[in-house]
Amino acid sequence: MSNNKEKEFMISHVYNNLSSLKIFESRYGDTVEHFGAKWKIGVFKDSDGDLRPHIDCEGPQTGNYSINTVYDILVSEVPFRTGWQFEFDPNQKRYENYIPKNDYSKYGIDESVTIEYRVKIIEMTGIEQKPVNIQNDMAKKSSEVEKIQKSMNFDDDVAKESSDIVLLVGDHKFYLSKLYLSFHSTYFKSLFLGKFAESQKSEIELKDIDPDDFQKFLEVLYGERCIEDCTCSQILSLSDYFGAKTMIRRCEEFLINASKKPQKEKFEAAVQYKMDKLTKKCIFEMKTREEIRSMIPEDPNEMDKWIWKELLKKSLTIS
User: Which residues does the UniProt record annotate as the domain BTB (predicted)?
Assistant: First the structure.
């Protein structure tokens, strides 16, 4: 099967603690599926200490296939390679570039780096995309929401023994660490380490917060739960409220690489929570002027000026 209709997507990942990356060691982002193939990006440190970003593509397990692509690479939002072409097939599943150490400062590489691939598929053969059954998909998501259960307890004996603060949310008590929360949240840092009266208390009530949403927020914060479409909105809302920038970044990575949410929902979330990479991805993937118009909010002041400029630039590229 040949499908020559152009398809575009973007995949990115933030690689932290680069000084601990050993020679000949690789690190990868999440595997995501686009247009019937599985994609992931990674970085590899060679014998000279240079970084080698690469993109991997895995097609069907059986049969021949080919995916002819043109892609751009951004390193920490700075263009690194533009218009590079590569054809993936069963014998060529990876394409690699490299960034010499001497260029690290040029791309703002220190202890962390963001690698972003913008991929355009210009031709595919041998891959048939599965049709989406919308009703089954919605039923599955509804079932997932109903089945969500705790993956970490914040009120058992282990939590109580290691805690130095109790947060009362609704009728639930969460036994937590001041230091850990303060490290990840500006709200809790001010609450626990500032000059507020609460800083001396051993139990603090958090008002107007749903305990189930707070449970999900903590589970992701502690690395015990993956972000999902059915929990992302609540986690984003609390991350914004608590000033948890790392959590917002993790939600942004999920929305860019794994979420099945409609494009409009992603764009609205990106604008509301100032997730610039997601905003750029959504604009990059807009195909028509009608789609652009559908993204514009009723109150134009909800969008920053730079977003308006990007939307205008995008509209001018559409014939």
Answer: 163-222
Q: Containing domain of residue 111, as a range?
A: 2-125
Given this model, what pLDDT does residue 129 score? Answer: 58
The pLDDT assigned to 243 comes to 95
Instruction: Count structural domains, the chain.
Output: 2
pTM exceeding the 0.70 threshold for the entire prediction: no
Domain check: are 86 and 219 in the same one? no
pLDDT tops 60 at residue 134: no
Contact at 8 Å (CB) between 51 and 45? yes
Name the nearest CA neighbour of 28 among 58, 48, 60, 64. 58
Residue 139: predicted pLDDT: 47
Query: How far is it, in rounded angstroms, from Cα 191 to Cα 141?
Result: 37
Mean pLDDT is lowest, of 3-7, 68-72, 132-136, 282-286, for 132-136
Q: What is the CATH number of the domain that holds 290?
A: 3.30.710.10
Q: How far apart are CA 49 and CA 28, in angstroms?
A: 17
Q: Which amino acid is at 319?
A: S
| 254 Cβ contact list (under 8 Å, min separation 6) | 226, 227, 232
The pair of three-digit structure tokens given for residue 31, joined into one six-digit string: 């595997």
- Residues belonging to the chain: 319
Q: Could you tell me what percent of the chain has a pLDDT over 70?
A: 90
Find out whether 173 and 166 touch, Cβ atoms under 8 Å.
yes
Among 150, 176, 138, 123, smallest CA distance to 2 is for: 123
- Could you tell me which residues come within 8 angstroms of residue 117 by beta carbon, excluding any fewer than 6 positions away? 10, 11, 12, 41, 55, 71, 72, 73
